[in-house]
Amino acid sequence: MLETSGRLLKLLSLLQSHREWPGTELAERLGVSRRTLRRDVQRLRDLDYPVQATQGTAGYRLGAGAKLPPLLLDDEEAVAMVVCLRSGADRAVTGVEESALRALVKLEHVLPARLRHRVSTLDNATVRVGAAPAPAVSADTLMVIAEACRRHERLRFDYTTPRLGPRIRSAEPHSLVNFDRHWYLVAWDTDREDWRTFRVDRLVPRTPLGPRFTPRELPGKDVAAYLDRRLSAQTWPFQATVTLHESATEVSDRLWPGMGVIEPVDDHSCLLYLGADSARDLAWMITSMDADFTLVDAPPELAEALRTQATRCLKAIHRT
Questions:
Q1: What pLDDT, in 10s, does the model give residues 62-99?
Q2: What string of DSSP letters covers 2-56?
Q3: How far is the C-alpha of 242 from the C-alpha of 298, rounded, in Å?
Q4: Are 82 and 104 in contact (CB under 8 A)?
Q5: What was the pLDDT predicted at 92?
Q6: Are the beta carbons of 14 and 21 closer than 8 angstroms?
Q7: Which of 107, 274, 284, 292 could form a disulfide with 245 if both were Cys (CB 3.0 to 4.6 A apart)?
Q8: pLDDT level of residue 53 (50, 70, 90 thresholds)
């Protein structure tokens, strides 16, 4: 009986490691006949593992079932799962914290001592610096939007902004993006006939969903880069375009997420597109790039902010 149970665990581990196995190779790896292999496969099916027979290759694969059976994880997968669950317990998606904690307790309970030691070592060596809390987003809201993206169904929703208050909006959803502790919906706004980004924490979907639509081509092939550029410049009251007199490769690591977008020009220069709440913020963002620069397209207030900053720095030198 113990030999059979161990063989079933090994068979399950093999089925989980590859999408499809020829029956002859499975039997050889288990050291059994094809007949015994078929009996073992049937035992797994009796335990609700959806083992499917494949046509043509006389093989087997593990399919999707009606309910979730137990999973086999190797050491690296188990440690990665614990780390992710601990991180997920305080994420900005409401409704998942309790589920993540329940799963974490179950997983840590069955971890071997050597893996518990690895996880605790990592946890003890990690310092979590407190940051501003991210706006909470309902998991149900994310699922409604994701389903509308998948099915290409128009989305109607109540959208609230600090300046305009609540409004009813209609859009053709393209993608959900988790960016800098916020969730965003990138969509075609049917009222304004243009692409827009919406903060999901300000959005409440209306049901039922609208009619199906033919997906449009997003400006630029990378939705993350498109959102980065929108958030970095176009949505801010003060915007600027600056030529940095270094290559894009040299300055890219000085740019933090959401600060701006770099566009290569040649081996010795690049363009920086950025935006901020004030010209003063633009000035310190540009100078923080630690590169010579030229203003290409900027509001007149930016020149004055740079002049003020330069004067302040010169005064500090003279006083020293």
A1: 887 656 666 667 777 777 777 777 766 555 666 666 67
A2: HHHHHHHHHHHHHHHHSS-EEHHHHHHHHT--HHHHHHHHHHHHHTT--EEEETT
A3: 8
A4: yes
A5: 60
A6: yes
A7: 292
A8: confident
d(CA 139, CA 93) in angstroms, rounded, equals: 6
Give the separation between CA 168 and CA 20, rounded to whole angstroms.
48
Residue 240: both structure tokens together? 């600027």
Give how far Cα 244 sits from Cα of 166, 204, 218, 270, Å.
Answer: 40, 41, 28, 5
Q: Which two tokens stand for residue 306?
A: 């740079």
184 contacts 196 by C-beta, under 8 angstroms: no
Helices 34-46, 2-17: inter-axial angle, 10-degree rounding: 80
Contact 155, 171 (CB under 8 A): yes
Is residue 277 within 8 Å of 238, Cβ to Cβ?
A: yes
Tokens of 268: 């010795």
The C-alpha atoms of residue 246 and residue 291 are separated, in whole angstroms, by 7
- Closest listed residue to residue 138, CA positions, set 63, 202, 45: 202
Q: Is the pTM of this model over 0.85?
A: no
**Contacting residues for 316 by C-beta, under 8 A, at least 6 apart:** none
How far are the Cα atoms of 84, 149, 152, 162, 265 from residue 216, in angstroms, in the given order? 34, 12, 10, 29, 29
The percent of residues in the chain predicted with pLDDT above 90, rounded, is: 30
Strand-pair category, 93-94 with 137-138: parallel
User: Nearest 10 degrees: CA dihedral of 152, 154, 158, 161?
Assistant: 70
Q: Which residue has the higher pLDDT, 195 or 129?
A: 195
